[in-house]
Amino acid sequence: MKKKHEMVVLTDVSLITAIVQRGKADELVDAAQEVGAQGASIHYAHGRGVRERLGLMGLAVEAEKEVINIIVSTDQANRVFERIYMAGDFDTPGMGFMWVTPVEKAASFIPQDILDKFAHEGSPNPFKGRDE
Amino acid sequence: MNNITISPHKLITVILPKGRGTGLIKKLVTELGIQTVNVSFARGLGRITPLRHRGVGETTEKSIVTVMIEAERADEVFEYIFFEAELNRPHGGLIFQQPLLISTALILPELEEEQ
Of chain B residues 10-69, which have a CB less than 8 A from chain A? Predict the structure, then answer.
């Protein structure tokens, strides 16, 4: 008997990327989750630019950075973006910067109860099957 | 400017549990012949992060694999990674694909693979 594997492809998805001073990321991810973000990945980086122009010998701005990546549905993107902006004081020079890039598609494990909910609501079938 | 490609390319990013990245890039290189693969490391969290339920911590270590691929092969590679990396299982990770505006060509000469 053939075992059927299914891949649920998500469209209308955006990627929010924020570069912040080291130690700020967890607070900003919490803020993003409060308005609907599901999760985030965080990695470290080293930055330069505005730091050299601010503060005494550049000490006011941390050179080590955290880079936050958050995948959100496109209709959530503005809300999550604004929340991170406010929580991170991005209107203050040197606090960091962020952007949104388009994602053509995304996929992950989706629990069956959520898929059933889609089916009950009469949404278009999001399944893409593959026989093996 | 010879190395800048004008054919459309895609960037596929895969977020995997720690330690699963190197195995995946080996398969991509040996089985699909893709050379434009990279792995980096991060910490990550999600609403159903397993450790969160046990109260040990909120973030777990992740391997992040990025693959630059010709647009016409992107769907095939996306699906290959999804099943080979077992992203269809709980806590398996996440994959997403983005368009690229400009990319550089990486054409390797015929060389034997080092063991």
Answer: 10, 15, 40-47, 49, 58-59, 62, 64
Please report the pLDDT score of residue A125 as a whole number. Answer: 47
CB A7 to CB B82 under 8 A?
Answer: yes
Q: CA separation (Å) from B74 to A44, A100, B9, B31, B80?
A: 28, 22, 8, 15, 10
- Cα B40 to chain centroid distance, Å, stands at 10
pLDDT for B67 beyond 70: yes
Q: Are B45 and A111 a contacting pair at CB < 8 A?
A: no
Strands annotated E in A22-103: 39-46, 64-73, 96-103
Query: What burial class does residue A37 get, using C-beta atoms within 10 Å of its C-beta: 0-12 exposed, 13-18 middle, 19+ buried?
Result: buried
Environment class of B10 (CB within 10 Å of its CB; exposed 0-12, middle 13-18, buried 19+): buried
A45 interface with B at CB cutoff 8 Å: no
Q: What is the ipTM of this complex?
A: 0.82
